[in-house]
Design goal:
This protein has 97 residues and is mainly alpha-helical. The chain has helices spanning 3-7, 10-33, 43-66, 71-94.
Amino acid sequence: MHLGFLLKRPSAWMPVALSLAALALVLGVLITRGSSPAADEGAEAHLWQLLMAAQLPVIAFFAFRWGPRAPRPAIAVLALQVLSALAAAAPVVWLNW
C-alpha cells in the first residue's frame, strides 16, 4: 500500500480539512476583529473548539484501521494530520486567546 492510496481515504483527509477550516476561522477573526481578545468566548471560539475536537476520533480511527496494515504510509499521514492540527492551534496559542 502506498501513501496516495491512504490519502484518498476520508479518515486520512478529513482531519486535515477540519484543521484547515479551524485555521481559516482564526484567520477570518484576525482579519475582521484584529488580534485583541474578546471579552468573552464567542461563537467562533466554540466552533474552533468543536472543529479541533472532532478530529480526535477520526485520527484515532485512522490510526487503528491503517496503522497495522500499512505502517509507514500511515505514520506519514498521521504526521500530516498532527502538523495541520498544530498549524490551526498555533495562532490561538501565540496570540494567547
